[in-house]
Amino acid sequence: MMSITDVLRRVEEASAEDVTFKHLEQIRKSKFNTFITVAEDQSLERARALDSGELKSGGRLSGVPIAIKDNMSTTGIRTTCASHILDGYIPPYDATVVERLYAEGAIVIGKANMDEFAMGTSTESSYYGPTKNPHNPDCVPGGSSGGSAATVAAGEVAISLGSDTGGSVRCPASFCGVVGLKPTYGAVSRYGLVSYANSLEQIGPIASNVEDVALLYSIIAGHDPKDSTSVEVDTEISIDRDVKGLTIGVPAQYFEGGINPAVESAVWDGIHHLEDEGATYSEVDMPHTDYALAAYYIIAMSEASSNLARFDGMRYGLRTEDKDWSTTFSEVRALGFGEEVKRRIILGTFSLSTGYHDKYYLKALQVRTLVKQDFDLAFKDVDVLIAPTMPMPAFRIGELVDPLSQYLADVNTVPINLAGVPSVSVPCGSTQGLPIGMQIIGRYFDEPGILGVAAAVEHGIGNKI
């Protein structure tokens, strides 16, 4: 795997065009299906403009290629959300995060593969085929940002962006052995992110190391007038991996319910390492965790049902033979959406329907408040919470065919999105050649704090994996 520093050095020694060309060459040889669209012409053109001085250089990512999850708008580069219904759609504008990356000299080299409309835990639901895990091509890379994590793990790019609605940055980071951050809700603009579940999702950085994740976060974070949910945050992040005096909370509920023994052992090794470095830990009770998964899926599917109503084949994307409006609308959605997307739309529509809205959707919102209160209470006594990112290492492609099995895999990640707090997944071990990630959860807008703890884990045990 590469770091930003490695790439910047190569740019200085050669040129942005040379570095971009070599990245493209490696992506062409890839056997992992990490990209849906490779922006060869656009990336080389931008690299030449940086080399010639036509574009301002000297930014923190000047000449550094980056992969963007294929649910973020990119001018002139196809954006499909891994769905047939958006095949051929080219946005006329850039997402705010892409604008901010361009301002620092980054080069968008392509759009990374993902679960269709970010709905999944394995990147198997992509219309463009599953992404493979670079550690074992027979296994999934996690999801829904599987391509974003796998391309970093494969050394095809140093950095990428994913989105996290219920674990979609942290899950693939864990499965692929890289670092992935789910920022506090509102810390990063969602303008230009194709919506799945507005109240839950955040764009987050993925990289091979904590320092690069911190740099990426500092670039993309901050208020955006185009996103009313975004807020001003301190983007000057100084990582301090000194954990002396740190108090760690270990939620008992996150270690229950079929956690793989190797995963549990590796996470405890990470906790004990922090203890050796001067931190202390205690068990904390988060009693509403058991209800979080059900509440999350009701809320997420309900919001998806509303958001995905805009994909009708009338204005962009897939279009069938014109008939009357109702027939054309039905045919486009039947042909354009995959099975998992259809399932979530149907379940979400049911949850919002007359007679069931209060029973399901409203009840889920009430549970969400209780989950948030669990975090508020826990953080009165501890600085961070630590738990396994995923209950198991990466599973084999095609192994979890039952949708419910994949939903259950999100048991440790969805409470964080319900509460809106930040969380970072960092490698802490491996089993049978597959990485294991631990997640470090913090108070609202304490990204510097959790990244510092992640850096301590990375420095102490991450380099020994």
Automatic annotation (TrEMBL):
Q: Which branch of life, at top level?
A: Archaea
Cite the entry's keywords alphabetically.
Ligase
Ligase keyword on record: yes
The EC designation for this entry is 6.3.5.-
Q: What is the protein name given in its UniProt record?
A: Asp-tRNA(Asn)/Glu-tRNA(Gln) amidotransferase GatCAB subunit A
What organism does the record attribute this protein to?
Answer: Candidatus Methanogaster sp
